[in-house]
């Protein structure tokens, strides 16, 4: 009576070899087919043991297992632009430009003031000073007379 049994070893999917010794297939080395990756737009193939993953490029979000789409940080409000800057979307990122009358890198914009704010006043917008208490005028040049303006708490 012959009780001899036979068997065959096979490597799991994502591995190659003779069945006794198996090696990981780097699917990222080729695209498509049985042993290549299927990552598409805005992704980067990352080899994993027995498989691969499609990683989204910076500034992109996952659409499905193989595709990512660009994030428009300007329309989603996820940008870091200054309130006095304009956001411009770019592929995978964005940049900020200070609006007319302001200067800076777009993340920090300071007003360009043609006039000098006097008496400790501070330029808050082009052509506009925010005066310290007690001063008025376009350039904070006038001392406010609280008595004649009725802005005092004096008893008669």
Automatic annotation (TrEMBL):
Classification via Gene3D superfamilies: Laminin
Domain called EGF-like: residue spans: 24-69, 70-110, 111-141
Keywords of this entry: Disulfide bond, EGF-like domain, Glycoprotein, Repeat, Signal
Record Pfam families: EGF_3, EGF_CA, hEGF
GO cellular component: extracellular space
Record GO terms (molecular function): calcium ion binding; heparin binding
Keyword Signal: yes
PANTHER family: EGF-LIKE CALCIUM-BINDING DOMAIN-CONTAINING PROTEIN, NEL HOMOLOG
Protein name: EGF-like domain-containing protein
Organism: Homalodisca liturata
